[in-house]
Amino acid sequence: MKRLLIKTLVAAAALAAFGSASALDIQERTIKFATQNPKGHPLVIGMEKFAEIVAAKSGGKIKVNMFPGGVLGGDAPNVSALQGGTLEMVSMNSGILASQVKEFAIYDFPFQFASGKEADFVVDGPFGKMMHAKLQDKGMVGLTYWELGFRNMTNSKRPINSVADMAGLKIRVIPNPINLDWVKALDANPTPMAFPEVYAALESKALDGQENPLSVILANKFSEVQKNLTLTNHQYNPQSVIISKKFWDKLSADEKKLIGDAAVEAGKYQRQVAREAAGTALDALKKAGMQVTELPPAEVDKLRDKMRPVIAKYAVSVGQETVQALQAELAKIRK
Hints:
Elements: H1 2-23, E1 29-34, H2 42-57, E2 62-67, H3 75-84, E3 89-93, H4 116-124, H5 126-133, E4 140-155, E5 170-173, H6 177-185, E6 189-192, H7 198-203, E7 209-213, H8 214-219, E8 228-231, E9 236-244, H9 245-248, H10 253-287, E10 291-294, H11 297-318, H12 320-334
Parallel strand pairs: 1-2, 1-3, 5-6, 8-10
Antiparallel strand pairs: 3-9, 4-7, 4-8, 4-9
Helix pairs in contact: 2-10, 6-11, 11-12
Keywords: Receptor, Signal, Transport
Family: Belongs to the bacterial solute-binding protein 7 family.
Pfam family, one: DctP
């Protein structure tokens, strides 16, 4: 009897959910959603949660097809596809969008956020919304921000115990001017490269190293081709979840609200997963044979000093108004 009652309640809840979805202006639609990281990575887990929420809230009318692992190409082709309307959604490093809107370079400033909590406060507040609003003129709509995390360095040449040890290393960077410049400031050799090409370049020794959050290093099996991991936490990457404006403009108000709310709800879950994964990834990478070093505080200070001129240079190109707006938000939370 108890089991029958539970089944009845579940069926009633499902019927109520579908009924409410039926009452809304929701059409049969398919969303192609792409990202660079492979299945199992926190970003893809976030996409799966988003698809689940959208299916439930739309009564199964809106289907989300996921394309992880860069199978639809690198970030630049994905942006073009969004603008052309042949791809509906993408999750990507917010800083990459500087190629479309120069102010987005601020998200790649080294040592900007001290914690995920600080980053959340900035990107979820007026500053983050203001930045995403700038994308509309470029054919994209920013829905929310997810998390990639704090970046660390790996290489196949030698352990890095000091800033001087980075000199001469050929390091893959996100194709973005600020990333080229901060690697040059370390006397290393930056190599811009689309993410799907990185593993093969590391394996062939065309690259000495790369830098990414621990969860990315683990999920993409870089430990197979990189033996040295240095914990630098030199840069934090928020992920912009963006949708094609051509697709967005076809949606009803109900559909827009459903998709926007689902992206935010899935994002809360995705950040939790990402932060838990960062803690477990380090142990997993050690078990995979990576030699882990942590820069002493004095060397971290040297690293910051090397990067200050780069930050100052890009503060000018990004614009003081944008820099001051972000700093004002950080000042609020740091009180």
